[in-house]
């Protein structure tokens, strides 16, 4: 019992700190190595991760740019865009009609005239 009392009054020696492992730069390097090791376990190289990150950032930037463009368009600009799309659609339809054989075009014109003649007769 007297040994326990004497031991409680004495200062117990601590294990001395290793100056290398105690340094901040060593701790950061060790942490970075651990993180790199964890990433390599997933099977992707650093280049693949960098490319994926770049693609992701480009998609995010494109999405933000698109939102900005949509937000900043005025009603006039929107109407002009709608008109331009309508005109492009009409041009595409005209091109497709020109590519049709001539007998189909004539048949379509005859169908239109018979429908309009029938409409006039009913009135």
Automatic annotation (TrEMBL):
To which species is this protein native?
Acanthochromis polyacanthus
Q: What is its main location?
A: other
Q: Which GO terms describe its molecular function?
A: actin binding
Alphabetical list of InterPro entries matching this protein: FAM107
Q: Pfam families, per this entry?
A: DUF1151
- Function (record text): Stress-inducible actin-binding protein that plays a role in synaptic and cognitive functions by modulating actin filamentous (F-actin) dynamics. Mediates polymerization of globular actin to F-actin. Also binds to, stabilizes and bundles F-actin. Involved in synaptic function by regulating neurite outgrowth in an actin-dependent manner and for the acquisition of hippocampus-dependent cognitive function, such as learning and long-term memory.
Where is the region Disordered? 1-123
Single biological process term from Gene Ontology: regulation of actin cytoskeleton organization
Indicate the transmembrane segments per the record: none
| Localization in the cell | Cell junction, Focal adhesion; Cell membrane; Cell projection; Cytoplasm, Cytoskeleton, Stress fiber
Q: Name one GO cellular component term.
A: focal adhesion
> What residue spans carry the Basic and acidic residues bias annotation?
25-68, 79-108
Q: Which UniProt keywords apply?
A: Actin-binding, Cell cycle, Cell junction, Cell membrane, Cell projection, Coiled coil, Cytoplasm, Cytoskeleton, Growth regulation, Membrane, Nucleus, Stress response, Synapse
Q: Does the keyword Nucleus apply?
A: yes
Specify the superkingdom: Eukaryota
This protein's name: Actin-associated protein FAM107A
